[in-house]
Write a structure and sequence with these properties.
about 450 residues; Rossmann fold; five-stranded parallel β-sheet; 4 domains; GMP Synthetase, Chain A, domain 3; Helicase, Ruva Protein, domain 3; globular
Length: about 450
């Protein structure tokens, strides 16, 4: 084979054959999910799903990839990674799902959208860990998957990044494909959709095909719909598509990092339509759920003995912001264990995860003053009210929420928080216990706390 006359696919095929022979587990876990894109000189451009995946390849497996790319017809290839490319459907889905999947032919899909089509089998309802914080969103997603267009339409899932919204989106797609040979499922990100829309605006004839790819479906799933913010032309286009699908009882599922009413510069007509079905929040997992996620991931590795319960408990306790970071930390430890061949101690984990643990600390690097101001603004009261002596519910409850969030989101002691609120530490401890109890029975308070947390994360 003369590689200079061959495509990136053929060169990567030679490399992956070598990688598969060397270590089948690593091939399945990592290299199988890489997409060859192009050749530029002696550099092979490879597509990966995101920056984190790419960083793992470069940090942990750079030598393996370079060795696999060396001496292919006398050429020692280098490589570069480009995020934003999901692996091809044929590589990932199981034979059972594949046989029940109807996917729009590639010839009918704009080039930029080929990777959006199909049903990925990696994220399913079976491997989604359900806890109190996400049970409602999980139940709604499962109901939609079992009866598309008949229960909650649209289904709008929202929550901060890394809590499982995309997992549920893919689980819906996989279930629908598995249950029906006839259903046409379209799953894409809003960013991809916007890119294709503006790309096709250059040739108005192509807008017909762009529209048909959205409309000729039974289930439309769009991730990160908050990206529509301020995109006036695309909002008009999507409004028309939404109405057409809804009127035909086609299922629409959307995810966002915020509620429809919180998306800035969103057409009010779209806002009301997004809210007319089911809106469900997916919250970060609590400690028990995080530990269950880690145990499930451990059961899928070849180095289970190296990762004991104490290590998983350490991870679950110290990485609480989102599942994506938790999973990344686990993968780093599992990868190190596979190379070292020994049992990992917590001290080693702390050293290996310095960056992730530092990020967790910075996530809590909020000031009490920031929290006070955000809470006061949300509830429509003044700082003087929040810090004053008034005890009516309209002021006392926001004050407790501010104390509770100060305790949860900062490293400050109860004494420090009490001083900032001109109260003693016992009052802070009371708020810390009282607010979770109140939010369990008061949905409006629970939603308010969640909204304030998302607002604080933007600081």
């Amino acid at each position: 084979m003369d590689s200079r006359d061959n495509s990136a696919e053929n060169i990567w095929s030679v490399a992956t054959d070598r990688l598969k022979t060397q270590n089948t587990h690593l091939y399945s876990q990592w290299f199988k999910k890489i997409t060859p894109l192009s050749i530029e000189g002696d550099t092979l451009k490879l597509g990966v799903s995101d920056d984190f995946f790419g960083s793992i390849i470069e940090r942990e497996y750079d030598d393996l990839v370079l060795a696999a790319l060396s001496d292919i017809d006398g050429i020692h290839y280098n490589y570069s990674l480009e995020p934003g490319h999901e692996p091809e459907l044929e590589k990932l889905i199981t034979p059972e799902v594949k046989s029940n999947t109807k996917v729009t032919p590639k010839s009918e899909i704009p080039a930029r959208e080929t990777n959006s089509q199909g049903c990925l089998g990696e994220h399913t309802f079976e491997n989604f860990v359900v806890g109190a914080e996400n049970r409602f969103g999980y139940a709604a997603a499962r109901a939609v998957a079992e009866a598309p267009g008949k229960v909650y339409n649209p289904l709008f899932l929202y929550g901060i990044s890394g809590v499982g919204k995309t997992h549920l989106l893919h689980a819906i797609a996989s279930t629908v494909c598995h249950n029906s040979r006839k259903m046409v499922v379209r799953s894409t990100t809003c960013d991809e959709l916007l890119n294709d829309f503006y790309y096709n605006l250059l040739d108005k004839k192509n807008l017909t095909k762009f529209r048909s790819n959205l409309r000729d479906v039974d289930v439309l799933l769009i991730d990160d719909v908050q990206m529509l913010s301020g995109k006036t032309q695309m909002q008009v286009e999507f409004f028309n598509v939404f109405n057409m699908l809804y009127n035909k009882h086609k299922q629409i599922v959307l995810t966002s990092d915020r509620q429809p009413c919180e998306i800035e510069d969103l057409d009010k007509r779209l806002e009301t339509r997004f809210e007319q079905g089911m809106t469900a929040e997916v919250c970060p997992p609590e400690y028990e759920a995080r530990l269950s996620i880690l145990r499930m991931m451990r059961s899928e590795t070849l180095v289970q003995d190296a990762l004991d319960d104490a290590l998983l408990e350490f991870l679950a306790k110290n990485i609480a912001s989102n599942v994506r970071r938790l999973r990344g930390a686990f993968i780093r430890l599992a990868s190190h264990a596979s190379f070292s061949g020994g049992k990992l101690a917590i001290e080693q984990a702390e050293e290996l995860l310095q960056c992730q643990l530092s990020q967790e600390c910075s996530a809590k690097d909020l000031s009490i003053a920031q929290i006070q101001q955000t809470v006061a603004t949300h509830f429509g009261i003044t700082m003087a009210d929040l810090l004053g002596e008034k005890r009516n519910r309209g002021i006392a409850e926001p004050r407790m929420v501010a104390m509770y969030l100060s305790r949860e989101l900062t490293q400050c002691s109860s004494n420090d928080i009490g001083s900032a609120f001109r109260r003693n530490h016992a009052t802070v401890l009371h708020a810390e216990k009282k607010v979770p109890t109140l939010s369990d029975t008061d949905d409006s308070l629970r939603r308010a706390i969640s909204q304030i947390k998302r607002q604080l994360q933007k600081h």
